[in-house]
Amino acid sequence: MSRGQTETIVSRKEGHSATLASRKYKKKSAFLESWNRLRTNPGAMFGLIVIILMVLLMVYSFMFITEEDVMAINSANRFKPPSAAHPFGTDSMGRDLFMRTVYGTRYSLAVGFFSVAFGLVVGVFFGTLAGYFGGWVEEIIMRVSDVMASIPGMLLGMVIVAVLGPSFLNLLIAIGVSNISGFIRMSRASILSVKGSEFVEAARAIGMSEFRIAFSQVLPNSVSPLIVTATARIATSVLAAAGLSFIGFGVPVPLPEWGALISDGRNYLGRAPHLTLFPGIFIMLTTFACSLLGDGLRDALDPKLKQ
Amino acid sequence: MLDECMTNSDVVLDVQDLVVHYELKNEVVKAVNGISFTLQKGRSIGLVGETGAGKTTTALAIMNLVPKPPGVVKSGTIDVCGYKMLELKPKQLEKIRGKEISMIFQDPMTSLNPVISVGEQIAESVKLHENVSASEAYDRAIEMLELVGIPGERAGEYPHQFSGGMRQRVLIAIALACNPRILIADEPTTALDVTIQAQVLNMINDLKKQFGTALIMITHDLGVVAKMCDDVAVMYAGRIVEKGTLEDVFNDTKHPYTEGLFNSLPDITKRESELKPIPGLIADPTKLPEGCAFAPRCQYATDACRERPPTIHQISPTHLVECTAYDNPGFQIEGWQNHG
Questions:
Q1: Of B18, B109, B21, B128, nearest in space to A204 by CA
Q2: pLDDT for A39-71, tens place per residue?
Q3: Which among A5, A9, A208 is the nearest to B147, CB-wise?
Q4: What whole-number distance in Å separates Cα of residue A72 and Cα of residue A19?
Q5: Is this model's pTM higher than 0.95 or not?
Q6: Contact at CB, A23 and B98, closer than 8 angstroms
Q7: Domain interval for residue A201
């Protein structure tokens, strides 16, 4: 057997130098494979569709709804229940709630995306350094992270907004910063669990630098927990933004952020429950969709689950 | 296509008086205690010995990959193609590892990164050392895969989709991707079953001939040594106790420990004969004795063996043995003629 084997190897090699047949085997797209697995997960697809719809609504609002539309006061039209003219009804100043809710999509999606992206990039960078290099690097990073984690996210957000002043950008920064320590802990923990593997030593043996090993060999093993954390964080960030807006620390008052809409409507809960109901449904749908998509992504990105 | 070795001679690896200790909190593990050997271009040397003899530490030290702390290289020089491995800065070491000297690890199940496709992992090695584009590196990776007998279209698959033997082939492909001068194979077949062992060994042999790579084969399996190696160094408790060509060590065994290793092998022609294992356990590397470390297990041991370090005897120009018993010119071990 072994003799035949070696002959095959040698003859393959000879045939090879002539043709360089390798061109025909292109890389299989990792993205495409993950997508195929994601597609078969009904929950994840539901989440994805909801998120796409939200994005479409946002695009629609950018194209067709002006700031005047959502600000125009019409005292003749106060507290109208949902109708054909006003699908979500009108609020205490006669403004169309549908327009305001749709207009508010941009704030929640931006908060969900940018604050998590900020927390993810900063947190994973420092978490990877801490987990992989250990020693005093880890001590410093983790103690700073502990201090950040010890302050409740809402309070930290309020402090940051109070210091920087209420504006949408400051809201993003506030929530982004409160996201960092979760990502530091998460990435450090999963890096610790793989950094002792033999493949790390094997990577050193082919001459890879420590920094490159940390980020190109070890970090990819942590992708699935990070994806799940990130999508869960999107949901909580949207909620946190709504919460901060609800207590007046978010988007400045007349702008229709979802939390601010609910805050506005809570005074009229008995008289006009639709004022809190519709923005509430939007918040719930968005966070729910993110969580479902996150779970689906975790399964789809894990090459070990491939059939 | 490779830069020429900095030395003119054929010696690609020269290890002198290497001492490596692991300094733990309460004790010092004396893993390697002064070993020397050289390796010439295209030749192969087998490091043989029991678990704990310091074989893997020697290999890691050659790559300057001994984990520090707790590992400390106490003394010695290691010269890989003219580069003093122990004196280089990390950046320079990274250029040599994988390019001049490569290593295959023991366990193919854990030595590949589970979330990166095998093609990418081979290409990574090429990208690190050669100035090529990503797609050229990937083409090389596919070429290497086919060279080790795996169809190129499987390059996009992940390690868990391969069997143990195929993973070991992938590791070999990674190690040889940049055509290194020296390949260290650390028990490359221990984790594989016997039929696959033969295939993998044949393949290493073929590729070694094809590329002119020098090989350090670390193993506890004398059969593997007989098949693969030109020279043999038998290690015990961090020392090389006997060193010579394959002929010297196998047919003219001198050291009692080497004899013991051969006696521990089953003999297929004498089925009824009993195995004669070496009594006792390998010396505790935290408490090495004053004299010969093998003396407590050695049937020929005298007081002289226990009291002072063993003496080195040159049996022939190629054959060295480190054993005090040969101070007496008439000394002869018993069992060596049983093995031809």
A1: B128
A2: 888 999 999 999 999 999 999 988 888 877 778
A3: A9
A4: 72
A5: no
A6: no
A7: 41-74+99-305
